[in-house]
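TEACHING EXERCISE
Course module: macromolecular assemblies
Task: Read the component lines below, then compare them to the predicted structure of the full complex.
Student: A.B.
Group: 4
Components provided:
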Amino acid sequence: MNILAPSILSADFNVLGEQIQTVAKAGAQYIHVDVMDGIFVPSISYGMPVIKSVRKSTDAVFDVHLMITEPVRYIRDFVDSGADIITVHVEACKDIDETIRDIKACGVKAAVAINPETPVDKIMPYLDDIDMALVMSVHPGFGGQKFIPDVLDKVRIIRSYYRDNNMDKDIEIDGGINFDNLPEVLEAGANVIVAGSSVYRGDAAANTKKFLELMR
Ligand SMILES: O=C(CO)[C@@H](O)[C@H](O)COP(=O)(O)O
Ligand SMILES: [Fe+2]
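Instructor-supplied answer key:
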């Protein structure tokens, strides 16, 4: 199933709850929540208290993308704040197996992300264990960047692996997705589509509906 995950990094934080309701009411299944620590990535975004507060605005799935060093330290806190899916970066964890185990032990879905420059081999050992693989299509840290098409090879390799092993798992793609590159991204095998600036720039409800239409 194709799923749209609007990234609230591009939303108006002054009215964040309403901005979430707008896309959820328009049909977005996930809300993509980018957490940045200023160490793993240059920028700092928001953390547990904000997530806990906006959690009250919707029942949509909270897809929490942790761009933080050693996220294993905070898994329980993010689950308690309302995360339904937790994504950690392969580049940010000393012990990925332990981190995945901790996420699952908390009763939420576990996902692993890889940066554009990280070879696909780094994620292959975890594909059986995780619920979702996240392929970054920009360098993490900021919204509104240009899509890096080379990463689609990684999506194809992961999708082939899942197909060959009869696993119908999710592959999320994140960064620079717009109405123009969406077809090639879906064609490569991604089925969870993160879109920040292309949803929240302009009419967020209309953009959400258009994405969902193109993803049917
Ligand atoms: O994780 C990140 C950036 O690090 C993303 O989730 C962006 O927030 C997506 O925004 P757009 O590239 O779609 O504007
Ligand atoms: Fe993200």
